[in-house]
Design goal:
The complex is a heterodimer of chains A (141) and B (399). Chain A has 141 residues and is mainly β. Chain A has one helix at 15-22; strands at residues 7-8, 27-30, 37-38, 56-59, 63-72, 86-93, 100-105, 118-127, 130-137. In chain A, a hairpin with a 2-residue loop joins strand 8 and strand 9. Chain B has a single domain (11-130, 223-395), classed as 3-Layer(aba) Sandwich (Peroxisomal Thiolase, Chain A, domain 1). The radius of gyration of chain B is 20 Å and the shape is globular. The two termini of chain B are 20 Å apart. The interface between A and B is large, with 43 and 47 residues. Strand 1 of chain A pairs parallel with strand 5 (139-140) of chain B.
């Protein structure tokens, strides 16, 4: 068995995110005061500056556009040595301007990419009950 | 309300010392730091017992799991004061980002406030055994849960994303970045203390280097080193009695808070928009603008920062830096070139984290650059990213 990848440690705020990911659903934290999506959620809302944002995780479409990408050819974390080369995409989610998320592009390092390409969320099942959001090129199937 | 620094040109650099820059120093980092501190104090024409202020930025900038140990992998201001046998009135470390500009700001403020008369400012950099950024983490909690399980980790991918965004948006070529590397290493090769002394890099060597995190290759990253620089600062009035020509601190700025993002996520538009706010405050603080600067020393810990600083400082239009460097715009040997890497930068010295930029401003403006001496009056020493760093304006004259 190869070295495992680092697994997320859900905390009080992020627990619903990882629970939804395990069901292969992408949810994003939303401020209860101003309804802005926030990634990552912190102590405050970066949009309305509420100190009591009471973030709720809501399902999103899981679609977005590629704002940038890189091909990782050297692993700095355990568990990724066997995965290189792999592509990471910087994705702007459809739901809100500048709502950006980074994940692997599962189409492989040979995929031709351009700024603005459409992607859809996909999930990697990395351990029992643990799935990591990633992306694939194109619209949802 | 004026943005001009109240102490503009009232505090000066009056001496320095710099260790050799090596992959691994024979002596512990603290010992190297003590040696440079003693030499810098003597260089300034002072005695150790006259030093009453110590300032540093103690960050050990690794993404790895290396231990942070005072005197070994970092050297704090109090460690240095204790080990020099000094009980200073003021000792402090800058914990923010833009380590050299932040530390210089603290030294200037302390002197202007009368909290200290003579301040030793040092920066000690360490290269630990093993991989610099490799991290054996088995789980990712806190902010890292949003990026590490996904495979996004460490500064190479961090800089690769905005650099690729720049390349895709503006059509920048690798040949253009080769010009940055050739310039940095050409100048670094001329510096006796540099890790790259006597070792310039050709464009062909750069272009042949394989990628680590596209479009970043090894040569786009400064090499981790052991090295220490120390500067001495005092008031302009006291500086007049010291042996070397003072170099005045005209103004400084550290970056405004950026948009909340995932850890190490630096979109190009964040770098440019927040960076322009940083440089606007810098010019206000110093009371000069980009056309008056003849020694802009740009940060280059990763090569794309040279583009980002050229554009945010207003030295070339947005999106044009890659053409500017390809057309010889940063060739410090050409009368038409801006000497932005004349001090070799980090790519030409090693990972000295803002030291090469500050040192070149000091040496050139104090008239102490030897056979590399240029005609220069106003310098800028940048560090890190324009949106997540800072810069200091230095002047040979008070104005």
């Amino acid at each position: 068995m190869s070295t495992p990848r680092p697994l997320p440690v859900p905390d009080e705020v992020s627990r619903p995110y990882w629970a939804a990911a395990a069901r292969h659903t992408l949810v994003v934290a939303r401020c209860s005061r101003c309804a802005s999506f926030v990634l990552p959620p912190g102590q405050t809302c970066p949009h309305c500056h509420s100190v009591d944002p009471r973030f709720r995780f809501e399902p999103v479409s899981g679609t977005g556009t590629v704002r940038s990408w890189t091909v990782v050819r050297q692993a700095f974390l355990p568990g990724f040595g066997a995965e290189v080369p792999f592509v990471l995409v910087d994705v702007e989610l459809t739901e809100q301007s500048e709502l950006r998320m980074i994940g692997r592009l599962l189409d492989g390092p040979a995929a031709a990419l351009r700024l603005g390409d459409r992607v859809t969320v996909a999930f990697e099942d990395v351990a029992p009950g643990v799935s990591i959001p990633a992306f694939t090129l194109g619209a949802p199937v | 309300m004026s943005g001009r620094l109240g102490a503009s040109n009232q505090v000066a650099l009056v001496g320095y010392a710099h260790s050799v820059v090596q992959r691994h120093a024979a002596a512990p980092l603290g010992v190297v730091t003590l040696d440079t501190a003693r030499r810098a104090i003597a260089d300034a024409g002072l005695r150790t017992d006259q030093i009453d202020g110590f300032v540093t930025a103690p960050l050990f900038p690794t993404a790895g799991a290396h231990a942070v140990e005072d005197g070994v992998s970092t050297v704090s201001a109090t460690w240095l004061a204790d080990n020099l046998g000094v009980r200073p009135r003021y000792a402090a470390g800058f914990q923010g980002i833009g380590q050299m500009p932040g530390a210089v700001a603290m030294a200037v403020n302390a002197i202007a406030a009368g909290a200290a008369d003579y301040v030793v400012l040092h920066r000690a950099m360490h290269n630990p055994p093993g991989r610099y950024h490799g991290n054996p983490m088995a789980s990712a909690g806190g902010s890292l849960q949003w990026t590490a399980p996904q495979g996004y980790f460490g500064p190479l991918s961090m800089i690769a994303l905005p650099y690729n965004e720049y390349i895709q948006r503006y059509g920048a070529s690798r040949e253009a970045m080769a010009a940055v590397l050739v310039e940095a290493r050409k100048n670094g090769a001329r510096l006796p203390w540099s890790y790259w002394h006597g070792r310039p890099l050709s464009a062909e060597e750069y272009l042949a280097e394989p990628m680590i995190s596209d479009p970043i290759c090894r040569y786009d990253c400064d090499i981790p080193v052991d090295g220490v620089a120390t500067f001495v600062l005092t008031s302009a009035r006291r500086a007049a009695d010291l042996p070397h020509r003072p170099v005045y601190v005209s103004g400084y700025a550290t970056s405004a808070p950026a948009t909340r993002r995932l850890p190490l996520h630096w979109p190009l538009d964040d770098i440019m928009s927040v960076g322009q706010e940083t440089t606007r405050r810098l010019w206000e603080s110093a009371g000069v603008g980009p056309t008056e600067v003849d020694l802009p020393q740009l940060y280059d810990g990763f090569s794309p920062f040279v583009y980002f600083w050229l554009e945010t400082l207003g030295l070339c239009p947005p999106g044009e830096a890659h053409r500017f460097v390809l057309d010889g715009g940063i060739d410090s040997d050409s009368p038409k070139g801006l000497p932005v890497l004349s001090g070799g930068g980090a790519l030409g010295n090693g990972r000295m984290h803002g030291v090469p930029q500050m040192l070149e401003c000091y040496l050139q403006l104090a008239g102490r650059a030897g056979d590399r001496q240029r005609t220069a009056t106003i310098g800028v020493a940048c560090q890190s990213s324009p949106h997540f760093g800072g810069a200091v304006v230095y002047s040979a004259e008070q104005f």
